[in-house]
């Protein structure tokens, strides 16, 4: 099965054969700077942890988040309407039916502009800063502790990155929710932004940042930590050969599968806060605690099925695009972590 789907990865728009990395350990004498600690030398376009590396990782984040979130705007719109008006939008299929009846096909694209801008900025910070903080915290811990505490490392790096990413996302998220959930308020970002500023000032754009942190930080922690450990587990228990022997398309298939698994968990963990954000940005003068109390336990789980489909697919595609960008630009891509030799000696695992 693994080999039968690997060819699908070759069709992705970032698959440029003449730019693909050479197999692990097979780089010729023209190999450029060393990659991650412990990784074989390859034909990299830049050094691991360099400014160029972080900049291109950020660019990969822009593409992965901006494109994927914009692609699922119709599903996101229905999900938001289910959360803020569950009596009218009673389910995902009913929600699409009602929306099409009221707004037509064009209505399903409402909010695409703030979605694209907001999530592109979020992706830039999320993926770019994740790489920055992962390197920073790894250096602080040291090689042995970075391996032993790698899950905590992924959690800390992703939480730190998402803190800044949500500040970048908040204004566009607020505008998007207004456009999608308030009929007659505004149809475009150009109409919504001035109206929001006139009514509430800058507060209108940032009053949802705290609920965003509540939603996005747990989501991102799960997204990165679950993905990293799932990739490690897939290569250890599922893939029939070491990563160094897998082709780049085969590696991208593993990336997609691990991304989807991580996405399902992400959706479940972050859904209650997502419900609060949707209602909060629709209503004036409400606080997150008031909205949470009013929705109750059952109310915060409305639209979960739609969100699982959306976030599972989104997360898988985001990791696929992000890893493809790394391949295209020949960035260092660390292999699954292995126990350092020094630690093996301390634990008596080597002669």
UniProtKB/TrEMBL annotation:
Membrane-crossing segments per the record: 252-273, 304-322
Membrane disposition: Multi-pass membrane protein
Highest taxon in the source lineage: Eukaryota
Solcar repeats: 52-136, 149-233, 250-328
Pfam family, one: Mito_carr
Localisation per UniProt entry: Mitochondrion inner membrane
Catalysed conversion reaction: phosphate(in) + H(+)(in) = phosphate(out) + H(+)(out)
GO MF annotations in UniProt: phosphate transmembrane transporter activity
Main location: mitochondrion
Keyword Membrane: yes
GO cellular component, one term: mitochondrial inner membrane
Keywords linked to the UniProt accession: Membrane, Mitochondrion, Mitochondrion inner membrane, Repeat, Transit peptide, Transmembrane, Transmembrane helix, Transport
One BP term from GO: mitochondrial phosphate ion transmembrane transport
Similarity annotation: Belongs to the mitochondrial carrier (TC 2.A.29) family.
Described function: Inorganic ion transporter that transports phosphate or copper ions across the mitochondrial inner membrane into the matrix compartment. Mediates proton-coupled symport of phosphate ions necessary for mitochondrial oxidative phosphorylation of ADP to ATP. Transports copper ions probably in the form of anionic copper(I) complexes to maintain mitochondrial matrix copper pool and to supply copper for cytochrome C oxidase complex assembly. May also play a role in regulation of the mitochondrial permeability transition pore (mPTP).
PANTHER family per the UniProt record, alphabetical: SOLUTE CARRIER FAMILY 25 (MITOCHONDRIAL CARRIER PHOSPHATE CARRIER), MEMBER 3, LIKE-RELATED-RELATED, SOLUTE CARRIER FAMILY 25 MEMBER 3
Subunit structure: Interacts with PPIF; the interaction is impaired by CsA.
Protein name (Swiss-Prot/TrEMBL): Solute carrier family 25 member 3
